[in-house]
Amino acid sequence: MTAAVRRSGGLAVGLSAALLAAGPPVRLTAQDSSAVDRGVRIGILYRPGVRPGMVVLTRRAPVLDSVRLIVARDIDYSDRFELITLPGGDSIRLAAPSAPGPSPAAGTGTGKATGGAAAAAGLNYPLYQALGADFAVAVTPAGADTTVITVHDVAAGAVRRELRARLPPLADPGFRMAVHRLSDRVLEATLGAPGIAATRVLFVMDGKVYVIDQDGADRRLVSSTDHAALSPAWGGDGRRFSYMEFWEGHGRLFVQDVATGKRAPVVTTGQALDFTPAFSPDGKTLAFSRATEEGTDVYAVNSKEGCCLQRLTVGRFYDNLSPTYSPDGQRIAFVSTRAGLPQIYVMAADGTDQQLFAPFDYGATGSSNAPEWSPDGQAVAFHRDVGGTLQVFVLDVRTRAVRQLTSVGRNEDPTWAPDSRHMAFVSDRSGYRQLWIIDLETGRIRPLLQQSGARLPAWSPRLPETAPSTP
Amino acid sequence: MKRLPLLLLGGFAIAAVAACSGKKPETTPLPQTANADSAAEAQRLEDERRAREAADAAAREAADREARQRVADSLAALGRTTEAVKTILATTIHFDYDKAIIRAGDASVLDQKVAILQTNPGLRIRISGHCDERGSDEYNLALGNRRATAAKQYLVSHGIDGGRIETVSYGEERPLDPGHNEEAWAKNRRDEFDILAGGDALRQP
After folding, report:
1. Mean pLDDT of the A384-406 span
2. A261 shares a domain with A145
3. Is residue A17 part of a domain?
């Protein structure tokens, strides 16, 4: 089962993902490369800086072209593989489907090739191995509405897994998300790591809340009223989200159901300026900031039953805001101006035991804001004023070490992907403010949305299968 | 025929003066005490104290009068209509970057609003705090709230009932100047003053 990663050095040709990706990858210039990979890798000898090669095989099956493209892009955007584009595009093809056992190791695979994958079983493994591929993925149809993705372990010379899925029709609004789920299963089958393809990002543009797939496709308006909206935030189950709207100068919080699009105001909010909602991981509690004449403080309310308002901070002469829960629900990181400029603090979820979280030099360190706790609990991302512009930082929760992640342009409002290694944020590095995604492990960065004015992104958890429509 | 009202008025005025002079209260005599020396000394100290207080009060009153006069003069210079008063009321005040402290120069702008609010007891206003685009989007809501509250506290500390003033914050969401330079930022770091009620017929202070 163990397959050594083979990377022949002379294969620089065709490693670019440009054919498949929406835009060319850009690399950060000042990137700390000391990050340690946390991904679980089954059957791979992991060497830092080297990613397993991956080929997404082409086929003459127009119906599946979009599936193949989406899967290829998802695999590319996972930043866990060197995506290998075959030289000459389609010139290197699968071996003839009828050719029996051209690969010496084909028969030893644990996953017995059957049905639609029988054709793919005749893969010329040594050839792909020579190209530097560790895995190959083939998309084939099986029957009327079933799609089969065959994952080949090139080094082992065998089919590793066959993934079958019933995809909705191309025109169905759920099509892309269904394909994204397939992509995540490919990642699971190859590296044992859960992917982030089936995720979306909420953001604000022109006072409205939008959602977009993590690959930059399928942008949709999810909340549009006459009231300007801010600060969208996902519920931990990915079935609902909260955001704030201005109502006659007050800030009112809403919780909206993803499946139905129905929304309800959060009780007790709307009488003051309530903003920056944040769900507790169990989804029961909604913490938020409330600005009154006494200043701004962190409150929490039972969002399920709409009761039990609780004040978590009391800062009469300073502000406390922007709460974010730790994934175990025990702690809340937040912003406080108790030392003058806003900095990142932490407290127990009931408001006790408040203390500084991200260390700073008094009088030297700039304002720090917009904290978001990573889904794995190990880090808190935030942005900090560095020389008059904002940069994204990451706080290591255990060591409390802070490292600067960005340095080009103004970078703000980071939000974690569920894999805790990707992050979306707002940057003006291209000349105007837009949404970008960075992979903390490789430093690779790509635009999520090439449109000016998008801000305050919130990355979803792994999204559930389409929720049953609630009455 | 046109003289009659004038004559009548004159008659009223004379009658009024006569009524006033007839009602003048008598001065109450000072109470006598047994110890004349100590009483005289106490009286002298008391007189001195009263003289000092009177002088202080006179000075304070003069200063107040002068301040009121300055405000009144500046208001008078701008006209006497409701619209003019509204214009003065709507004058924005501005803030330094990431600060919510009333600038010295803006105190006089707020003094005008104090005078208007005092003259028009039915007037209710809303102060909205705003920020420039440089800070954090969400933090700016808290900062704008501080700015609105700072202006309200100034008005309240000058005798205006806090119940007549609402405060809100729009952070950086409603810039006055869409530019991305210091000039625009300086304009956008502001408090705005809007009339909530009682603004139909405003009186000049």
Report:
1. 96
2. no
3. no
Provide, rounded to the nearest whole percent, the portion of chain A with pLDDT above 90: 56
Stretch A377-384: mean pLDDT, rounded?
A: 98
Number of structural domains found in chain A: 2
Which ranges of B23-169 does DSSP label H, i.e. alpha helix?
Answer: 36-77, 82-89, 104-119, 139-157
- Does residue B142 contact residue A321 with C-beta atoms inside 8 Å? yes
Q: CA A342 → CA A337, A363, B116, distances in Å?
A: 4, 12, 36
3-state class (DSSP) for residue A96: coil
- Find the CATH number of the domain harbouring A70: 3.40.50
Q: Considering only residues B100 and B28, tell me which one the structure prediction assigns the higher pLDDT.
A: B100
Q: How far, in Å, CA of A56 to CA of A51, rounded?
A: 15
Complex ipTM over 0.85: no
**Interchain contact, B141 vs A273, CB within 8 Å:** yes
Could A295 and B138 be called an inter-chain contact, meaning their C-beta atoms sit closer than 8 Å? no
Tell me which residue range forms the domain holding A132: 26-191
Class of domain B76-197: alpha beta
Among A273, A369, A456, whose Cβ lies nearest the Cβ of B145? A273
Residue among A86, A106, A221 nearest A158 (CA)? A106
Contacts of A295 in chain B (CB under 8 A): 142, 145-146, 149
Q: What is the identity of the amino acid at A24?
A: P
* pLDDT at residue B76, rounded to an integer: 65
Which tokens is B186 given? 């300086």
DSSP 3-state assignment of A408? Answer: coil
Does residue A214 share a domain with residue A328? Answer: yes
Backbone angles phi, psi at A192, to 5 degrees: 75, 10
Q: Which of A249, A276, A369 is nearest residue B168 as measured by Cβ atoms?
A: A249
In this structure, the answer to whether residues A444 and A295 fall within a common structural domain is yes
* Boundaries of every domain in chain B: 76-197
Q: Report chain B's mean pLDDT, rounded to a whole number.
A: 82
Which backbone phi and psi does A187 adopt, to 5 degrees? -65, -40
User: Are the beta carbons of B146 and A276 separated by less than 8 Å?
Assistant: no
Residue A366: CATH number of its domain: 2.120.10.30
In a domain, A408, yes or no: yes
- Is residue A43 over pLDDT 70? no
Residues A101, A110: Cα–Cα separation, whole Å: 15
Q: Please, which pLDDT band fits residue B3 given cuts at 50, 70 and 90?
A: very low
Whether A295 sits inside 8 A of B137 (CB atoms) is: no
Q: How many CA atoms lie within 13 A of B10 on its CB side?
A: 5
A437 alpha carbon, distance to own chain's centre: 8
In a domain, A13, yes or no: no
Measured between CA atoms, how close is A291 to chain B, in angstroms?
A: 6
| φ/ψ (deg, to 5) at A52 | -60, 145
| Measured distance CA(A467)–CA(B111) in Å, rounded | 59
A167-181, A234-248, A294-308, B38-52: least confident range: B38-52
Chain B touched by A339 (CB under 8 Å): no
Among B135, B141, B166, select the one facing A275 at the smallest CB separation.
Answer: B141
pLDDT tens digit sequence for A123-160: 788 888 888 888 988 888 887 778 898 999 988 999 99
Closest CA in chain A for residue B148: A293
- Angle among Cα B134, B138, B142 to the nearest 5 degrees reads 95
Greater pLDDT, A382 or A317: A382
pLDDT tens digits, one per residue of B122-137: 999 999 999 999 999 9
- The answer, for B184 touching chain A at a CB cutoff of 8 Å, is no
> Is A321 close to B142, i.e. CB distance below 8 A?
yes
